[in-house]
Amino acid sequence: MASLFGLSSLIYHPKLPVFQNSLHTRCLHPYYRPLKRRITQYRSLTISFALTESNSPDSSLDQDIQPLLQDISESFVLPPDYFAQLPNDLRLDLNDAAFDISCGPVIDECGQEMGEALLNLSRAWEVADTSTSNDIARKLPALASLLKGNAKSAFGKRLISSGRRFQSMGQYGQGELQRIAKAMIKAGQLLSASAVTSASDEEPKTERMLKFGNLQVELTATKANIGAVIAFVFGIICWQLSQGIQSTPESSLQYANDNALLLGKSLRGALLALCYSSTILSGFSTIGLILLARQLKSAKK
């Protein structure tokens, strides 16, 4: 009650400034209350802005991806010589997985550290080195935190492609391969979704690579045309060789006995078949390489 009377005396004190609002009610002049509201609004905006800054997409993505990368690392904890004991068809799938995770300009797309790690991981899979594969996979969570921008998306796409190779191996052993595939695909999908597109909208690079062991060859229109010329020249040589063998009469050749005669005839027939087949294959190769060169040239444009 004292506070109420104090408030009433404060309101109706004759020395306090008053004003009349649209409802014709007398109240205190609002000099201080709007100031407090403005300060409160400013503080709330500042706090919300700080929270927005702390909850940036990159930080949340790193927090979400770390457990998935740890799952990949743990899935490669396999028994000794596990890869070496795989059947031949699964070993071929393992080589395909090695190619998918390291093909193309892996260092340019994923960075120096991650690119070298993926190349070493690919070599370990190719030689079926389980222990080296486990050691490299254990470092992936730490290396993934260094990825910036489109490198995360490139790394994620490689994980998805290679994980699908493991998935195609089916059930083997205690399901280790499927556990690897699931972890790689799940992490790859999250990373590939974090593609950072620049304002200039960079054009996608369409590169075709051929891999022969450790040798990688990029397919271009110029290389395809050079291959077509080589195939054409080789076809002409095979054709001339076959014509030279066929134009040589059998009567001009002398044999010591009948066995030598049969051997000579069979050898002549084998050489003719080899030369004619090489000529036909060279012709098809020439046509195919010319068409490939045109396709690559049109795709580049």
UniProtKB/TrEMBL annotation:
It comes from the Eukaryota. It comes from Papaver atlanticum. Keywords: Membrane, Transmembrane, Transmembrane helix. InterPro entries: DUF3082 (IPR021434). It holds the Pfam family DUF3082. The lineage of its organism: Eukaryota, Viridiplantae, Streptophyta, Embryophyta, Tracheophyta. One of its GO terms (cellular component) is chloroplast. The chain crosses the membrane at residues 270-293. This is LOW protein: ammonium transporter 1-like protein.
